[in-house]
């Protein structure tokens, strides 16, 4: 089972989460995991962080990632924000907005990056 670092209540405080909140949080948590590929921190048997400050940073990064994905219209396909308009059948793309990302590139929210960096969790950081 994938790790999810935030609850709908944490991601949408005082508001009502969308119907697919659990899915959005799971996908954002996977992005956070991808960003932490070489990070080292203590975990419990389920792989969740045991240090409260690390858990807080992962929660903040996950919430920031969901917010970013919703703001950019990211639907999980990787195509969001890359085209001015898209049609599915019989495929019509137009108005390319940026260069294609390399396979494996992670579109991490700036606020998520900062939360992970402040906690010393990004790759190459030893604490």
Poorly predicted residue ranges = none
Mean pLDDT metric: 83
Strand content: 5-15%
- How helix-rich are the residues, as a percent range? 25-40%
The general outline is globular
Radius of gyration: 16 Å
Number of helices: 4
Strand order of the largest sheet: 1-2
Summarize the helix and strand pattern as letters: HHHEEH
> How many strands, which pairing sense, and closed or not: the largest β-sheet?
2 strands, antiparallel
Termini gap: 28 Å
- Alpha-beta content class: mainly alpha
Q: Tell me the number of strands.
A: 2
Describe the model.
With 127 residues, the chain is mainly alpha-helical. Helix content is 39%, strand content 8%. It is built from four helices and two strands, in the order H-H-H-E-E-H. Strands 1-2 form a two-stranded antiparallel ribbon. The chain starts with 7 loop residues before the first helix and ends in a 9-residue tail after the last helix.
Jot down its keywords.
4 helices; 127 residues; mainly alpha
Short overview:
The protein has 127 residues and is mostly helical. The protein has helices spanning 8-11, 21-35, 52-72, 110-118, and strands at 83-87, 92-96. 39% of the residues lie in helices and 8% in strands.
Write the layout of secondary structure elements.
Layout (H helix, E strand, L loop, with lengths): L7 H4 L9 H15 L16 H21 L10 E5 L4 E5 L13 H9 L9
Antiparallel strand pairs: 1-2
Helix pairs in contact: 2-3, 3-4
